[in-house]
Amino acid sequence: xxxxxxxxxxxxxxxxxxxxxxxxxxxxxxxxxxxxxxxxxxxxxxxxxxxxxxxxxxxxxxxxxxxxxxxxxxxxxxxxxxxxxxxxxxxxxxxxxxxxxxxxxxxxxxxxxxxxxxxxxxxxxxxxxxxxxxxxxxxxxxxxxxxxxxxxxxxxxxxxxxxxxxxxxxxxxxxxxxxxxxxxxxxxxxxxxxxxxxxxxxxxxxxxxxxxxxxxxxxxxxxxxxxxxxxxxxxxxxxxxxxxxxxxxxxxxxxxxxxxxxxxxxxxxxxxxxxxxxxxxxxxxxxxxxxxx
Amino acid sequence: xxxxxxxxxxxxxxxxxxxxxxxxxxxxxxxxxxxxxxxxxxxxxxxxxxxxxxxxxxxxxxxxxxxxxxxxxxxxxxxxxxxxxxxxxxxxxxxxxxxxxxxxxxxxxxxxxxxxxxxxxxxxxxxxxxxxxxxxxxxxxxxxxxxxxxxxxxxxxxxxxxxxxxxxxxxxxxxxxxxxxxxxxxxxxxxxxxxxxxxxxxxxxxxxxxxxxxxxxxxxxxxxxxxxxxxxxxxxxxxxxxxxxxxxxxxxxxxxxxxxxxxxxxxxxxxxxxxxxxxxxxxxxxxxxxxxx
Amino acid sequence: xxxxxxxxxxxxxxxxxxxxxxxxxxxxxxxxxxxxxxxxxxxxxxxxxxxxxxxxxxxxxxxxxxxxxxxxxxxxxxxxxxxxxxxxxxxxxxxxxxxxxxxxxxxxxxxxxxxxxxxxxxxxxxxxxxxxxxxxxxxxxxxxxxxxxxxxxxxxxxxxxxxxxxxxxxxxxxxxxxxxxxxxxxxxxxxxxxxxxxxxxxxxxxxxxxxxxxxxxxxxxxxxxxxxxxxxxxxxxxxxxxxxxxxxxxxxxxxxxxxxxxxxxxxxxxxxxxxxxxxxxxxxxxxxxxxxx
Amino acid sequence: xxxxxxxxxxxxxxxxxxxxxxxxxxxxxxxxxxxxxxxxxxxxxxxxxxxxxxxxxxxxxxxxxxxxxxxxxxxxxxxxxxxxxxxxxxxxxxxxxxxxxxxxxxxxxxxxxxxxxxxxxxxxxxxxxxxxxxxxxxxxxxxxxxxxxxxxxxxxxxxxxxxxxxxxxxxxxxxxxxxxxxxxxxxxxxxxxxxxxxxxxxxxxxxxxxxxxxxxxxxxxxxxxxxxxxxxxxxxxxxxxxxxxxxxxxxxxxxxxxxxxxxxxxxxxxxxxxxxxxxxxxxxxxxxxxxxx
Lengths: 293, 293, 293, 293
Hints:
- Four copies of one chain form a homotetramer.
- Chain A has 293 residues and is α+β, with helices and mostly antiparallel strands.
- The first copy, chain A, has a domain at 17-162: Alpha-Beta Plaits.
- Chain A is built from ten helices and six strands.
- Chain A has helices spanning 3-6, 33-39, 48-64, 93-110, 112-116, 164-193, 199-206, 211-222, 231-235, 279-284, and strands at residues 23-30, 68-74, 77-82, 154-161, 237-251, 257-272.
- Chain A has a six-stranded antiparallel beta sheet with strand order 4-1-3-2-5-6, with helices on both faces.
- In chain A, a hairpin with a 2-residue loop joins strand 2 (68-74) and strand 3 (77-82).
- The termini of chain A are far apart.
């Protein structure tokens, strides 16, 4: 039973590293999330708790892997961007995608109760993501308690983008997709929930309509101005590495609390719900692209 | 903001499918599990609860993906085998590895309390894996309660094996590795825990020893016959698709309970801790390889 | 101008080796050979000189690379088979395919005059391939002289086949393709050359016909029994590594010719035009597959 | 013998296209050219005829594939550059590399006599590459006649470079390599041919010397200023797509020669032997990089 007799099978392992000097995007997608959202009674068209949960998972991934310079999430998908010079896992696509998918999926399970079953109402406040802050979880007897019924799965892929133009177009593609889907879902569910239509009737009503038509239905029939809806729903979530000033207790040389406080700069993951398609976004956040813009 | 303007970026997605007609092995490895086992006070050299947890995760993966004909686990790794004719996810390696890694990692989190914090003592009973059976979980105040402190991660890879010979050698390689590591760890921790040596002294004692030497140390110094230790620790866990006869209530045509019972064959995942290197194993379980042996 | 400043660009070179332990097929295809055959007045439906030229090139490739255990050619394509244990060029697909394509293409140019412009009429004799035997070439003034007008090109690919079954089916696929094309071409050109039809009319006549119909046209209209045509045209060319007994002058210990002769076994590339789809072929030539059948 | 029974084997063909929007370099290398140059009595350190032959082959490749915007050759290697937007062969690396390798190798054979056995002395004149101009070839009885003894082979590879910086560094790498090798070879062969040293002694003399040392040996011992040697030898050959004004007979509307001439712009492949490492080169030839600089 010598080890070496069998060890030759290691030769069958093959992997091509990603090209050097290109942007890498790791995109994760929920598997079977149509059924998953039904099984867990997600609010339609958007479940704020679940979106915050996904953002929290992405934050966790970015804290573990500070090489991620920006990530973008919407619906049940999240994309993580690594810079051209990044050498995480020697740029091995399989290692990158499996590690990120696994970490995101286990985080989704780990943080489920914190975000889905918190007693406090969820807010859109992006500064609200301090995972160390204690949160009161609903009792399992609470009718509002939503137990996680089975472990969720995500698949992942790695895509190489050779320059800033194609990388930005990738992110724009995902945000445009968010807009298109959210506009559709918003009208659809408004027709069903507020308009009393059956899902089939709503689907038929929307068949062939353009963006303008959908905006018009929302406004004329339900008095809703789409552009006034929550930016989080319309724009998705953008997470970037940032800093925040925090007030901490001052300590003397012996480490004893002086009773005074001081300001310290702390790295944080910023959560934004803004338009990243326009040029301005990149000018306002120059550190994302760094020398590459 | 037309969708189509950005959609060209989809062309940058590239993936080579696996070769048709070859065995596929998806191997998952725990990331940073040396630290993870320390952070969660795993028993050394083997933590029965944690090994059962890993087996439960593998079972969950196999239930979700019945295409897996055998899986093998030891320490913090698990390998899943797909047959040459299997077309799961069109044999796309990235999709297979990310989905399995994510599902295993979220299962590890999902089942943590059930296996790590059950009030009942864990057993080696392989028939004990009914995830639907209610289990009493320790209170968080219990000193034995081990909270999961952060989401675990696993990486994954897909390896192609062209025939039964190389596939079996792969599994033999992993089981030989289990044996080698477990023998080392068993002697090491016995020297430390029962022999009163420091870890450094134990390491030095074992430096350059062969299998025979290690067996001798165990036997002569501690009266331990290595071959009598738990098969689970020495052989790892083999999971195969099987069936079990179960007794279920009989119902009449209207669906009413007749008060009698009947026997029914139910698919189950069997958990074995036996030697798969020897020829016999494959003869005793002919359905694993099917027509390929 | 230090070398090392630029040498980092070597990192961008990436290649995945072929899977170990599988059969490798390198298939070359003529590029633009429809035009090439027109430009060089190839006889239709088959040009014996050109087919012999291609066989000669394949022989040259096999002499340079004795790892090739069988090759098969028809029309403007040739396939070369490497065994599972072959480690030529460390099984790098790019290196294998480019080297074979280049060698075949330069051989095609190198041997052009010998096969296309030999004064002797070409024969089907498979033993006729001794490239060292002097051959009289036509004068460039000879009206039958066909000059090579430009360098020919071939593309290539490498395909992995995991077992004997799929490898044999690959070769059968190519030979079935040879049959189908040759039957069509034979009827088409007979209709044009002997039947006086225009190419368009011949094409229309054949539209939708089955094998049986085509055999019937040949037999009833032109008295041709397709199965009696040259095997080379119907079956293509199979090249295998073989040996031949040759009579050589005997020499004494001092190396002087004794005046007597002796028989010696010499490695040769055998050229066959037979059916490789049927089981018999492989039984009659057991060395091709060796231990793998 | 139905085609379809075997056609499933086509599924085993797999290829990943090159990444879109990156520069592609196809580099060809002579196989076994150390032996080849000995077998064909190449002049050392540089054989002008053979270098011109290689340039002619590269020109032929570029004429067949005008997508090549620049190529660079030295010794027995040649690199061809395709732009980021080029879609030749759908950017399939295998198809690109095999076609280019085959075409180069068959051109090398095809043009052999024209360049190696021309009666006229070869010149460095870059405008001298008109393959249609008749050339008088030496008789085979001429003692200077160098017959091509066997078909030459080249291997090839495709490398992706994401931006102008890395592409230029690639070309600079090859030119720096040319310089380093040529300086070494020049001193080595001068020591042997003019200094009367044995190859072993010359090799030993050069062991550990730097560029400056080699220049010094050439100058002090042999009165040779390395920088005055032929640019072709020191810089290699750069081929770019260009135009040339040619004087052609004027014709009237009926196509009859008017007896007058006119100037016309004709596409030509320019051959340069200059420094491409310095910035100036790219400014002087802005069309090579086009919009990408």
